[in-house]
Amino acid sequence: MTLLAAGGRGPASVGAPASTLIRNARVIDGSGSAARAADVRIADDRIVAVGRLTPGPADRVIDGGGLALAPGFIDTHSHHDRGLDTAREATAMVSQGVTTIVVGQDGGGIDLAALFGRLERQPAAVNVASYAGHGAIRDRVLGKDFARAATAEEIQRMQTLLAAEMEAGALGLSTGLEYDPGIYSTPAEVLALAKTAGAAGGRYASHIRSEDRWFWDALDELIAIGRQNRMPVHVSHIKLGMHDLWGQASKLIDTLDRARAAGVQLTADIYPYTYWQSNLGVLYPKRNFADRAETEALLAELAEADGDERSLIELDQRIHRHVYRCTHNPFLSAALGEHYLLSLRIWFLALDRVEQLGDAVREHRELLEAIRDGDGDAAEAAMLRHVDGFEQAIRVVL
Ligand SMILES: [Zn+2]
Ligand SMILES: [Zn+2]
Fold it and tell me: What is the CA(99)–ligand 1 centre distance, in A?
């Protein structure tokens, strides 16, 4: 059981109790001290007393039933800026005890004045804070012509937009440097924008430029931003996302510790599970999806590519598992199709291996052959059958 701190800002309705008393709970107050049996009284959205409390005539009494009672949790890396407009009850969050979310992650998120205005008029069941997203700002300035470095004048325009977002209440700048359009920015562009956020008292939070092949360079880029701009910098969902990097966690911790010891205000967070969660596109930093050598290297990274039937079936399962995990929330994400198409591209390039397989990948074959032969109707029919299979599988998994 969690105390929900958000919502209910309006005047108390006639006859409503003056306070709420939660009794018989195990209070975990967030200070680090052990859980203790206590009652909690709340009045006007505030905790006014904690301890052994006696119900008064004005109390609405809730029996905690011996469950844990804690302040609401803060999800510091949330993607629920999508969907909150239509699901203001925010069940996925509040049912986990999350009462504050931080959105605008990975370079997404802009026009916070409008976002906060909407939330003021129609509040959601959670408190919302946001970063200003580099990718969204870059998109505003470069539009479709994003696959290049920005000019000095364009960087200035981005800085102006960012300064306005900071004014509107952004926590700082977030980047998604593995994604379009952020991947095409130079380190100098990112440094300059982060400086604008820092000058307004903001932080820098980054999905860094590489979590696999160029991981150490990407980490250096972030540390340099913290050192040169003297601002807090944060590595989002830090990971060693490649077999070659596995086993180097102590080197990673040492690197972070050294930077902190040298005065860089550096933090990082990590997923509470052992899978990578992104889209397959980030595995192609050069966006060369049709490059066979690149795809072979990627296949080798995902699974042993010895060509025998068992490893290929396993590869198929791994790609599918990866796709399931790609979606931040399988129910909410509309991105499934994109990931699916990318996994198909991989399969398309591996078609000569697929030839050896039997029933396990028959649907892939139908689809791939339809794509190869330019038969759009057959491809769509095969894809719909397969997507249907995906949804069934997700239902089973959950
Ligand atoms: Zn994210
Ligand atoms: Zn990310």
Answer: 18
The per-residue pLDDT for range 18-47, each reduced to its tens digit, is 899 999 999 998 888 999 999 999 998 899
Residue ranges of domains in the chain: 19-69, 73-268, 280-397
Please check whether residue 93 is in contact with residue 81, taking contact to mean a CB–CB distance below 8 angstroms: no
**CB-CB contact of 220 with 188 (8 Å):** no
In the CATH hierarchy, which fold is given to the domain comprising 73-268?
TIM Barrel (3.20.20)
> Residue 165 in contact with residue 173, Cβ under 8 Å?
no
- 278 CA distance to ligand 2 centroid (A)? 7
How far is the centre of ligand 2, averaged over its atoms, from the C-alpha of 201 (Å)? 23
Contact 279, 339 (CB under 8 A): yes
Q: How high is the pLDDT of residue 351?
A: 47
Distance, CA 190 to ligand 1 centroid (Å)? 18
Mean pLDDT for 99-117 is 95
pLDDT tens-digit map of 296-324: 677 667 644 444 444 444 555 555 554 44
End-to-end CA distance of the chain: 23
Quick one: which ligand is closest to 237's CA? 2
List pLDDT tens digits, range 113-156.
Answer: 999 999 999 999 999 999 999 999 999 999 999 999 999 999 99
Q: What distance in Å separates the CA atoms of residue 140 and residue 394, rounded to the nearest whole number?
A: 36
% of the chain with per-residue pLDDT over 90: 52
The reply to whether CATH 2.30.42.10 applies to domain 19-69 is no
In whole angstroms, give the CA distance from residue 272 to residue 239: 11
Q: What is the pLDDT of residue 324?
A: 42
Q: Is the pTM of this model over 0.85?
A: no
What's the Cα-to-Cα distance from 126 to each of 16, 31, 47, 93, 213, rounded to whole Å?
23, 22, 18, 8, 38
Q: Calculate how far, in angstroms, residue 4's C-alpha sits from the geometric centre of ligand 1.
A: 24
75 CA to middle of ligand 1, Å? 11
Which token pair is 192?
A: 């300059």
Phi, psi at 336, each rounded to 5°: -50, -45
How far apart (Å, rounded) are the C-alpha atoms in residues 130 and 174? 9
